[in-house]
Structures are given as C-alpha cells and as structure tokens.
C-alpha cells in the first residue's frame, strides 16, 4: 500500500451500493480499499469484478479483501485484529452493511431482532472494534460514515401516508435506520475533541439486489453521497449531519 493513500474499510462491499463505493474510491487512486464481506470468497469474487471493469480502472494493489460479518462479534473482532496486524491503523470507516428485513416466516420480534443485529448492533460493535485503529491513524481527516436512509427520518415517517407506512418490513427497517442516526449523533459528539468526524449518509432509493432491483437511482449514483460524506467538505461542519441528495427538507 502506498503511504500516500488513505486506508478505508467498507463493510458489505461485495455487492450493491457498497461495491459501487469501493469501485469509485479504489479507482480514484487516492485510497486503498479494504473490501469487507461476510466471507473471503465473496470478497475475492467482488475484487475480481472490480479489476475486470474497464469503466472504473482499479489497480490490484488498491484493494484488499477483509472477511467481516457485522452480525457476528467474533468476526468483527477478528477483522479488526487482522487490519491492525497488517496495517497498524485505519483512516476511514464506512459502515455500509445492512439488510431490509429478516428471513421469511419470522415473527415480529425475531424480524426486528434480525434487522437490528445487522443494521444497528453491527454498526455499534464495528465502531467500537475499529475505534482504536482510527485513533492510531495519523491521517489528517479521519472519519466514520454510517450509511443511513431517508426512511429513518422521523419527520418523513410523519409526513408519509398510511399506505407508505404500512408496507411490509417498513417498521423494522425504518426504526433501525433511525437508531443508526442516533449512533451517528452520539458518536459525533463523543469523538469531536479527538478530531474524528462521524457522518451519516443516505444513498436514496437505489436499484440493488436488496430491494429486487427496484429504485429511482443506480447504485453508482447512490454511492456518491456516501463518498462525499467520507472524503469531502469540512469534517467539523459535517460531523453529526446527514449527507443526502433527496428529501433534505426532512432533516434528521
């Protein structure tokens, strides 16, 4: 890894929006991307796809696989240990991994639990595990980016009609993203004096495998506000805010 490149870990980066984040950041020549996936084999497959794409040329040295299942504390701690042993520190952390609902047939309690395990508890544990590596970094612009959603905005839920709020999976998914927003706000305050910005980002309604290919945007475009949250602007001003392209009038 070139010393001039910032080291960034992206969870859930083997597909969808996470893959597009990795693709655009790795191809910029400014970052060494740690492509996080639940298994090394999935990460390796994604990296091969990155290297074969001519539209976003990526050098092999600009991306490395990391096995990390954010619903498994042991997997998270093992990933943090591996990054520490190989790199010593981490410059940017992007908590992207997420699910819309639990497995078919789950009762409401188990469905909420499944979504929160990944979308909320996973974010909390990943931040806790990798914070020592962010603290060890000498990078001038250390950041944690939590991928949220406009669906997690309380004001948007209040503004939507009955039909939108009654859709299957809406309650657990929106509630989980509202919780992610709170984690972002709390950590932005706690880490302000250490100079680590904590920023939320909402990609918008994107066509990915998570929603059956529905959506108004391509994942490539959905990745852009997340990358801005991780790399652009004044970190002190962005910390504790939500970077988004749509529905900005709803605030948090």
UniProtKB/TrEMBL annotation:
**Name under which the protein is recorded:** Short-chain dehydrogenase/reductase tropE
* MF-aspect GO terms: oxidoreductase activity
Family per UniProt? Belongs to the short-chain dehydrogenases/reductases (SDR) family.
Q: Name one GO cellular component term.
A: cytoplasm
Q: Which domain of life is it from?
A: Eukaryota
Q: Which organism is it from?
A: Lachnellula cervina
Offer one example of a GO biological process linked to this entry. secondary metabolic process
Q: Which InterPro entries match?
A: Fungal_SecMetab_SDRs, NAD(P)-bd_dom_sf, SDR_fam
